[in-house]
Specification:
By secondary structure, the protein is of the alpha/beta class. 40% of the residues lie in helices and 20% in strands. The strands form three sheets. A six-stranded parallel β-sheet has the order 6-11-10-9-8-7. A four-stranded antiparallel β-sheet has the order 3-5-1-12, with helices on one face. The protein has a two-stranded antiparallel ribbon with strand order 2-4. The two termini are 28 Å apart.
Length: 280
């Protein structure tokens, strides 16, 4: 994770929340010192150690942070995962932004972990998509890796993915691949999205580096996989849910990309319990 980018992101999130000041804490506290701890209210994979450490350090040099769980660690309900001590006003101003982030990241990491378990032993890799929350892509993709998954491309800039609309504008899969490969560097892979057997054959003949079976059934993928040469990477995507991962994992496809890991995941429940005037 890019620590400089994380710091910049957190600063922007705090500015959004604080505005011109904290009307609650600023009227209650001056330099009162206190402490609170973060506790898990449900079990799952923890993700966000760097968010906690960086988030609180931005507010005051005297804030002391201890994180008791590592990213990727399975944590139990009721487990204490962090303790923070310092000026109470600063602690309370930083609390909600940090909690919001680690709850979401832990939810993504946990759901990714559960998806990975569904295909355990098949050799299939679970990966994410670009269906991330605007502004949170770096963190959400980090959470996927924390849960044992892999990242698809990070954005439009680090890989070519020819979808149905690109192909329609270009006129055909063959023409779209030809146009792209004439202009991009040799380090850039070209992925083609297909939905039919005919499109698959055309993508193979056109020299695609990766073929995505989009909205195809497990039966279709299993029957078409033998048509794909071993040097071409295969991926399945399109509305695949956790309860069907085992089916898709048995098709012989190498990657399964899941949009729901980031666009509709449930945050893990984490709470802060405050103790004013006592040690961490």
């Amino acid at each position: 994770m890019n620590k400089m980018k994380l710091k910049s992101m957190l600063e922007a999130f705090y500015l959004e929340d604080l505005g011109d000041g904290d009307l609650s804490s600023d009227t209650l506290f001056t330099d009162d010192e206190g402490s609170f701890s973060f506790y898990m209210k449900e079990e799952g994979i923890f993700c966000g150690k760097g968010v906690i450490e960086t988030g609180f350090s931005l507010f005051h040099p005297d804030i002391h942070v201890q994180v008791f769980a590592e990213d990727g660690e399975w944590v139990e309900r009721g487990q204490r995962i962090a303790a923070i001590k310092g000026p109470m006003g600063d602690l309370l101003q930083a609390e909600r932004v940090v909690l919001n982030l680690i709850q979401r990241l832990s939810g993504i990491a946990t759901e990714t972990y559960r998806a990975v378990q569904e295909v355990n032993g098949t050799g299939v890799r679970i990966c994410d998509t670009r269906k991330t929350t605007p502004g949170l892509r770096m963190l959400e993709k980090y959470a996927v890796r924390t849960g044992g998954g892999f990242n698809h491309r990070n954005g439009l800039y680090d890989g070519v993915m020819l979808k149905d609309n690109h192909i329609s504008f270009a006129g055909s899969i063959a023409e779209a691949v030809k146009m792209v490969k004439a202009k991009v560097g040799h380090m850039v892979k070209v992925e083609v999205e297909i939905e039919t057997k005919e499109q698959l054959i055309e993508a193979v003949e056109s020299g695609a580096d990766v073929i995505m079976f989009d909205n195809c059934s497990p039966e279709e993928i299993a029957s078409w996989i033998p048509l794909v040469p071993s040097h071409i990477v295969t991926e399945a995507s399109g509305g695949i849910t956790r309860d069907r991962l085992a089916e898709y994992g048995a098709t012989g496809v190498q990657y399964i990309s899941l949009g729901y890991l980031t666009h509709s995941v449930k945050s893990l429940d984490i709470s802060a319990r405050v103790t004013i005037g006592k040690g961490v």
